[in-house]
Amino acid sequence: MQQIINFILRNKTTLFFVFLLAVSLSLSIQSHSYHRSRFFNSSNWIVGNVYSTQAKVSSYFKLKETSDNLLKENTDLRTLLFNTGISDTATIDTKTFQYVVIPGQVIKNSYAQRNNYITINRGKSDGIEQDMGVITSNGVLGIVEHTTNKFASVQSILNTKSNINAKIKNTNNFGSLKWDANRYDMVQLEDIPRMVPLLIGDTIVTGAMSSIFPENIPIGTIKKFNLNASESFYTIDVGLFNDMTNLNKVYIINNTYRSEIQELEEKIANDQ
C-alpha cells in the first residue's frame, strides 16, 4: 500500500494532467456532436480492424483443413465420374467400382531432366501400387513406378520412357503419347494416320485402350503438327494442360480390373 502511495506522490503532476485531459475529452465529446461522431467512428474503425485481423488469422489456420476437405470431396466426385454407370449415389458400394481414387500431394518434382520423376506422399500403406495412374485437376501427370510404405515415385509424363495411350477427342483416333525431352510444357502424339483431319487447338485425352487411366482424362491441346509427303503418320506437338513446374495436389487412380485385363491379354498373346 505504501508503494502505491509513494508512486502517486512521485507522479502526482503527470497523473493530474492525465485526469484533466480525460475530463476535457469527455466534456468535449459529450457537448459536440462532431467530436462524438469522430470518437465513435475511430473506435469502430479500431475494433473493426481488430476483428478483421482476428478473422484473417483464424481463416489462415483453417485453410489447410478446408483444403483437405475440398480434396476429399473432389476425390469422391472423381471416383463417381470415372465410374459413370452409377446413377444412385445413395446406394453406392465402392467395392464394385472399377476405379478407386486416392488423394495425395507432391513432395518432390523434377522437370529439367531427360527422365523426370515425381515423389508423392502416398505409399503401400495407402493402397498405392506400381502402374497406378496419377493425375491433377488439370490432367494426366504420370504413372506410379516404385513404392515404399509411405511414399511413391511417379514416372512423369516428362520422361523419355513414358508411353501413354491417348486419342484426339474430336475424332477418337488414338496413338502413343511420348516425350522428346525438348520442352517441359510439350509432349508428342505419335501413330496418328495421315488421313485423320487435324486442327490446331484440338483436345487430346486418354484413350480407351489404357488399363491405367480412365478414358477421356484431359492431357492438352494440339499446338503444331507436321506431315511429310513420304510419311504415313503425323508428328504432333501437344501443349500440356498441367504446369509441370508447379504441382501440388494429385489423385492416384487404381483400376481394380487391371490384373484381370492383363491376365486376359496374356492368354490372348500366348494363343497367337
Fold blueprint:
Elements: H1 2-10, H2 12-31, H3 33-82, E1 99-109, E2 115-120, E3 133-135, E4 140-147, E5 152-159, E6 164-168, E7 174-178, E8 186-190, E9 203-206, E10 218-226, E11 235-240, E12 249-255, H4 258-271
Antiparallel strand pairs: 1-2, 1-12, 2-5, 3-4, 3-12, 4-5, 6-7, 6-9, 7-8, 8-11, 9-10, 10-11
Helix pairs in contact: 2-3
Please give a structural write-up.
The chain is an alpha+beta fold. It has helices spanning 2-10, 12-31, 33-82, 258-271, and strands at 99-109, 115-120, 133-135, 140-147, 152-159, 164-168, 174-178, 186-190, 203-206, 218-226, 235-240, 249-255. A six-stranded antiparallel beta barrel has the order 1-2-5-4-3-12. The protein is elongated and about 105 Å long.
